[in-house]
Every structure is written in structure tokens, then in C-alpha cells.
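In this section we turn from sequence analysis to structure. A common task in structural bioinformatics is to predict how a protein folds when a small molecule is present, because the ligand can shape the pocket around it. The inputs are simple: the amino acid sequence and a SMILES string for the ligand, here zinc ion. Study the lines below before reading on.
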Amino acid sequence: MPIDYSHIADEAKLQIEAVADKAALEELRIKYLGRKGVVAEFMARIPTLPADERKAYGSGLNDLKNKIGVCLAAKEAQLAAIVSSAPDGYIDVTLPGKKPLLGRFHPLTQVESEICDIFRRLGFKIFDGPEVETEYHNFEALNIPLEHPSRDAFDTFYIKLAGEPVSRLAGSTGKLLLRSHTSPAQIRAMKAAKPPVAIIMPGRVYRPDSVDASHCFMFHQVEGIAVDAKIRFSDLKGILIAFAQEMFGQKTKLRFRPSFFPFTEPSAEVDISCFLCRGQGCSVCKKSGWIEVLGCGMMHPHVLKSGGYDPKKWRGFAFGMGVERIAMLKFGINDIRLFFENDLRFLEQF
Ligand SMILES: [Zn+2]
């Protein structure tokens, strides 16, 4: 008498009828008819049975195998019919969606745009200066004469073209270099517009620094100037306070410390109250409660003259800040190299 496997056949039939797609059906085929499946497991027991029972046991198993095979084939045909009867352009709304890969702006671009947007709202226009500059625009025009000791502070990449010791720009007397700050754009912006003006100049600058966690040979600055007949240091303070409160929060306080830059007189460095600890002292502000963010001052008469403005008629203020530094403070980044490694795991966080 054949052995009764009907409960297994019934169970398989119920499961097969419940599946909704080919992948699930294939899983059941493997479960029951696969090399290590239910039927194979029973088959493996045959050699352990007494010889006279083997025939009945085997034929029962064949029966089971056939029944499951029929169920699988029926279900397969049914699934195929669903797909083929779907109208053209049919979309299965139950399928999980594919997330489109969206591009995004680099964190430095985001911070630079944010800085520029704030100044634009304050009435500043944007001016774009060249990255390859003449020595004149980078130094002399900004009151940094050749033999001036302050030039030591501006290590510079000079450009050498084939056949020439150091290249010269047609019609200019200066050597060519990669600008070491955005300030030469001040001169070009003034030459391009009549006063009064309010201009910001964002861009890349280059210095031959060895690369470490806080230095890179290329980085970004945003420079700004405003020139008018009666402009004063208090106007500069007002603009910078408005900027810092937009950028770092309305409760931000500013501290102006006397400093020296060849192109401004008087000059100041500006600290903001630490936006993390609110002045209590933390690792970001090095326990001082203050963070240095920019340099500024009243434009030196020599600089106004270089831009073609009469220093007896016009006065101006200038300020400049490092985009990397502000981005690092804002996002809590402790290594400048992360900005330039193009690692998506980093970039996708912004
Ligand atoms: Zn702090």
C-alpha cells in the first residue's frame, strides 16, 4: 500500500496558490523539489527502509512530486497570464519605487552662496576677478611694495611659461602669479565701476602651504568693499554685525581687535561670540568664548588711488573671510582636506 503524503501535498498547494510573483514561486519550488528540498529529504531515507517497503514508499513520493509539480506549473501559467494581459504602459503601483540619485552642491559652494546672498540682500553686487593675476594687482596696487617686509607674509605661486624664466602678461610690467588673496579683484572692480560702489568678490586663492588638517594650497575667500563719500568705520561695523547675525544666529556678538593689513588703515580682526557654547567656552572656541572669522578695515588711500578713485573725495571699507574656515565652523568639520577628497560618504552629508 502506498504511503500517504497527502498532508504535504495539501500544504504545498496552499502555499503555491498564495504566491503573487515569480520569485516567491521559485522559492517554493526549491523548498519542495530542490536538491535539498522536502521530497529529496524523504528520498534519502529509502536505503534505510526494509527492502519490501521501499517500493510503496518510493511510489508515494513520486506521486507527491508530481502533484507539487502540477501545482507549480499551474501557478506559473497563471502569473505569466497576468503579465501578458497587462495593457501597454501598465505600471505596477505596488512595486517599491527607485530613489532617483540627486546631485547636490559642494558644502563650500553652499557656504559661499550663503555668504554672497546675505551681502546681496545688503545691496552688494558680485564681481569676479581672474585667478591668474599680475604681480602688480596682487601686491603693488594693494600697498604691498616689492621690498616691503609684509610681502613675506604672502608666499606666492609664480607662473613660468615655456622658454621664459617667469611669464609676463602682454602690456603689463609685472610677473604672472596665482592670486594669493581675492584682494586684487578690489582694484579690478573699482576700475570697472564709478563710485559709490558696494561689491563682493568670491573666489579661489592659492598659497604654497604644505597640506595638513587646517592648510591647503588652494582655498576660497570672499572679499568685500564699499566706497562712498562719507563712509565710516561704524558703517563697516554695522554691515559686519548684520552679516554675522544672519550667518551665525541673531544672538551673535562681534568683537573688533586692532590688527595690521597693508591695504587697510585702521585694520581690525573680527571675532564672533561662539555659537556653540554662547560664550561659556568650548573646544571650538578654545575655551575663550570667541572665534576669529574675518579681517577688515578702512581702505588705504593708496588702494583707492590704484582703483582710480580720488582718496580726497572717496572713502571705503574692505573685509575678507575664508570660506573653508566658516564652513568648518558651521558644519563642525575638523579637517580641511575632507573638502577636496571627493569622497561621496562625506559630500552626501550636506
Ligand atoms: Zn565655544
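The pocket of zinc ion is lined by residues 274, 276-277, 281-282, 284-285, 289 (CB under 6 Å). As an exercise, try to locate the residues that line the zinc ion site and compare them with your own expectations.
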